[in-house]
Backbone:
């Protein structure tokens, strides 16, 4: 279950993904498979080769890309999530979702 994202943010993410950009969208998330995880960052890009290269560069397994047209994405969770958000300078997402 996803929540905590504004319609404008979602639309901006969709537009960037569709344009072949690497785009980040963080939201609250609850999944019984991951009881200690409360947020996920969807790293999306319609250019699958570019998204796979981004995964490899960041030490993430590209085989876990969700190839869901029209918005392919990698679900970034766990300790790598705040690390990548800091690396990308996405301080607003780190602050809003309390990932210090």
Residues:
């Amino acid at each position: 279950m996803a929540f905590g994202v504004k319609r404008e943010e979602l639309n901006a993410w969709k537009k960037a993904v569709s344009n072949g950009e690497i785009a980040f969208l963080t939201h609250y998330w609850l999944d019984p498979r991951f009881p200690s995880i409360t947020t996920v960052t969807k790293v999306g890009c319609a250019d699958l080769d570019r998204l796979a290269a981004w995964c490899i560069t960041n030490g993430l397994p590209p085989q876990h890309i969700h190839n869901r047209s029209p918005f392919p994405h990698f679900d970034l969770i766990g300790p790598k999530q705040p690390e990548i958000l800091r690396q990308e300078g996405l301080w607003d997402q780190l602050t809003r979702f309390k990932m210090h």
Observations:
- Residues 10 and 25 are 7 Å apart (CA to CA).
